[in-house]
Specification:
Elements lengths: L20 H14 L4 H9 L7
Helix pairs in contact: 1-2
């Protein structure tokens, strides 16, 4: 049985990505259209966004 709404507890989790992450995903999708996403391809795309995939 669920407790009355006044006694219910809400749990949540907020996640976020750094600014510009959407551009990285667009570039990665474009690279996937050109061929397989090899580790080298992913490193090349990621290098434009100041991080390195692991």
């Amino acid at each position: 049985m669920l407790p009355p709404m006044s006694e219910a507890v809400l749990h949540g989790q907020a996640e976020g990505e750094p600014s510009g992450f959407e551009n990285y995903m667009r570039d990665l999708a474009a690279a996937a259209q050109e061929g397989p996403l090899t580790p080298e391809t992913m490193r090349r795309v990621a290098s434009r966004y100041d991080f390195e995939p692991v």
